[in-house]
Amino acid sequence: MTQQDVRKRMRGATVVIIAALALAGCSAPSESSGETPAAVGAAFPVSVTHGQGTVTINAKPERVVVLGSADAQIASALDLPIVGAVSNPSSEDGNWPGIASPLPAEVTVLDSVEPNLEQIAQMNPDLILATTSQPSYTELYKQLSEIAPVISYKTTPLQDSGEDLVALIGEASGESEAAAALIAESDEAIEAFAAEFPQLEGAGYVFGQYAGGVTYLIVSPTALSVQFMNRLGLVVPERVGALWDEKDTSYAASVGMITPSNEQLDLLDSADIAFISAYGDGAAEEFTSIPLVSSLKLLSAERLNLIGQDLAAPLLQPNPATTTYVLEQLRPYFETFAQN
To answer: What integer is the mean pLDDT of 119-138?
Structure first.
């Protein structure tokens, strides 16, 4: 399957997963440094180093263009002056789930996959954020840099920790103090949530997606969603985790996913709770009608939760700007889990 086939096949509501799957041959995701930016003043000019180079930003940005979902979420949380943003193709208003302040329709006009350099230039940006942009944008880093300073991914495309991206964007925008506060608030929210639901400690969970007849499960210990769920006390069941192969060079494995066959889906019963996003018309019915899925104890116990993209996308790539949103989306599922 070519990268173009992957993008066409799963574009739309699953744009975050698609972009990740398109990154064949990527190295394993890096772990967060765990450090937050120091509380420093917004002195300019400032030089910022990222995965594609070092850029100098001469003055506090007043016109920011965001080219990725997390870029929009983080920039909004830091109250940056966003004048252009890639549109979420699965939402009516083009906004990404979990964004602090919805962007107006005249702002969310950029295509999330197909770059239009002329359109971006007409927005007259003085900073372009592309830390979580699609590969099609990353490949045009040089051309984008001719329009305005670009902040790209920190270490690995679409696999940097949310904390690292918040710190990076905070540094570039002169909002390091706000970035540090956002990270701290996120940490506190996760700790409070875990304390509220002690039943999650050591419980087995599965998170993934069913699309186009294929089941994807995110299981790598270094996957961002796995690390997020681990902080809540949840763990990937041993039977599921045993299928992870670090030497696998497939599209799915590049972002910590496995693709079990329908004959292996009984392994879902090794989990105490599951979250599966079924994408496409009739996909949910198709998934639950697979013989080994329809006979799952997890399904009969109503612990196999079919979730929408509004939860699946930010849960796949969590960041401090969406922590509160993701936790509140998960809350009703865990309340039911805790009662049973």
So the answer is: 97
